[in-house]
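Why should sequence recovery work at all? Because a backbone constrains its sequence more than one might expect. Tight turns favour small or flexible residues, buried strands favour hydrophobic ones, and helices have their own preferences. The token representation captures these environments compactly. In the example below, the structure is given first.
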């Protein structure tokens, strides 16, 4: 029997500070690692950066007014740490805090539930300079102090909190692929950094509960459910390896406080095991998120990858031309292969609405935890025609995923909200302004000299109706 969406379902949309705000050095803010990284030649698409982005810092009232017209129930955004603590710690920068406080008030005045991401990748540069940021355990007290400042400032007004956005993505890009700051390729360090991030996540969740802040908190994980390309047991095993090492490796820690055994064995055998200090295991076990945030874009099909001559970890397709991504994997463990059963975007992201249902069912059965979909969306080239944007492909993508979530709810999953990526068009970290996700077109392109005018796309009006009918369209 197909169940309806809960009456209080959060129909939302999402963004992140660096991708929308601009104003990198205004009102006392200092550099984050991204402010510097984008200035290294070749690191971002055509050197695009977030100096202006979509100027949300100055236009947030206009953006919230359009949210109200859309009927949005919730809006997920992130706080730029270096607006609150320009040096990562020390004295609070009041004007920085005020920006978010005003934004929150504006949302609440328009009946929109704020969902606050504490960390969406923009670490204060000062902490990178002082102790290499995530590479040091010194980040734990500094992060907890930053989070506690937000909890106290916004308690009673903000009910939903995201501790870390996509820890699996920022650690792999930062320390394996070198495509995010600090731009390193060091597998062993990656696992160490990742362990620190787990400790931070646990410590922040514990702090939230200790302080008795009214509301709920959880991390957002980029879950790409793994399939086997076929029923060949070698490929099935490869898919299980991928699921253990690239999914359960994070979700088990978040939800059960333990690393999966198969993954730990792999780390130990490959001399990649990180240092665990006394008390770490207890800390991880003691933290209980209220929900798990899931960012879902695609699934992944896997095949066996031989030890000798197997494909290695590769680069992503950032060209925006379908079919330009190469195979990638770890010899002896798995390789990702193209799934002939699904279509792909121009950036080779596989379009698989049923995958979100599969993801929700797996999480429900394994962890019995409520899920908030914190991101889901389609990156495409959009072209305005006479002040309209006909993004029927995006409507098709989102609509099929909404249906699939409803099916997952009917299967027994508890889903508390759905946030599309993204609300307005914004900066894509590695793809500049050409890869658009928003309900609202923003006139900003690779020259970074657009008028910044906002134009609601067809998908905006489609979502308005979804919200009005609580998912029935
Ligand atoms: C997620 C990030 C978002 C956003 C999105 C789309 O990984 O949390 O910040 O960037 O992916 O990714 P992209 O811009 O690479 O298409």
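From this structural description, the recovered sequence reads:
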């Amino acid at each position: 029997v197909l169940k309806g969406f809960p009456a209080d379902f959060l129909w939302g949309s999402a963004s992140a500070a660096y991708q929308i705000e601009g104003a990198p050095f205004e009102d006392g803010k200092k550099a984050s690692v991204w402010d510097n990284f984008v200035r290294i030649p070749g690191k971002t698409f055509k050197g695009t950066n977030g100096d202006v982005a979509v100027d949300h810092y100055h236009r947030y009232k206009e953006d919230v007014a359009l949210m109200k017209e859309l009927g949005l129930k919730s809006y997920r955004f992130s706080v730029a740490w270096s607006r609150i603590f320009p040096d990562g710690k020390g004295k609070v920068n009041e004007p920085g805090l005020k920006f978010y406080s005003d934004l929150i008030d504006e949302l609440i005045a328009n009946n929109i539930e704020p969902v606050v991401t504490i960390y969406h990748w923009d670490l204060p540069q000062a902490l990178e300079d002082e102790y290499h940021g995530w590479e040091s355990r010194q980040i734990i007290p500094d992060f907890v102090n930053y989070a506690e400042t937000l909890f106290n400032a916004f308690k009673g007004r903000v009910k939903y909190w995201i501790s870390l956005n996509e820890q699996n993505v920022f650690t792999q890009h930062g320390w394996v692929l070198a495509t995010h700051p600090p731009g390193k390729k060091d597998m062993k360090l990656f696992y160490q950094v990742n362990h620190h991030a787990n400790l931070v996540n646990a410590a922040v969740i514990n702090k939230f509960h200790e302080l008795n802040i009214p509301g709920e908190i959880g991390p957002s994980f980029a879950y790409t459910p793994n399939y086997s390309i076929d029923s060949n047991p070698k490929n099935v095993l490869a898919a299980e390896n991928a699921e253990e090492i690239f999914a359960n490796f994070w979700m088990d820690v978040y939800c059960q406080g333990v690393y999966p055994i198969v993954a730990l064995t792999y780390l130990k055998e490959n001399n990649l095991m990180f240092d665990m200090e006394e008390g770490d295991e207890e800390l991880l076990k003691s933290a209980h998120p209220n929900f798990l945030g899931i960012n879902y874009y695609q699934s992944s099909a896997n095949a066996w990858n031989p030890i000798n001559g197997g494909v290695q970890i590769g680069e992503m397709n950032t060209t925006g031309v379908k079919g330009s991504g190469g195979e990638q994997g770890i010899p002896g463990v798995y390789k990702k292969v193209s799934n002939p059963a699904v279509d792909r975007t121009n950036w080779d992201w596989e379009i698989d609405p049923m995958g979100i249902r599969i993801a929700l069912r797996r999480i429900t059965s394994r962890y019995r935890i409520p899920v908030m979909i914190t991101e889901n969306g389609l990156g495409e080239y959009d072209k305005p025609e006479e002040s309209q944007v006909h993004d029927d492909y995006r409507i098709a993508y989102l609509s099929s995923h909404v249906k699939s979530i409803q099916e997952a709810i009917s299967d027994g999953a508890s889903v508390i909200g759905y946030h599309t990526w993204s609300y307005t068009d914004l900066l894509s970290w590695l793809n500049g302004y050409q890869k658009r996700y928003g309900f609202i077109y923003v006139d900003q392109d690779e020259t970074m000299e657009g008028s910044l005018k906002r134009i609601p796309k067809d998908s905006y009006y489609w979502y308005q109706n979804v919200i009005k009918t609580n998912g029935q369209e």
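A few observations help interpret the result. The pocket of 6-O-phosphono-beta-D-galactopyranose is lined by residues 16, 165-166, 169, 222, 295, 375, 379, 421, 428-431, 435 (CB under 6 Å).
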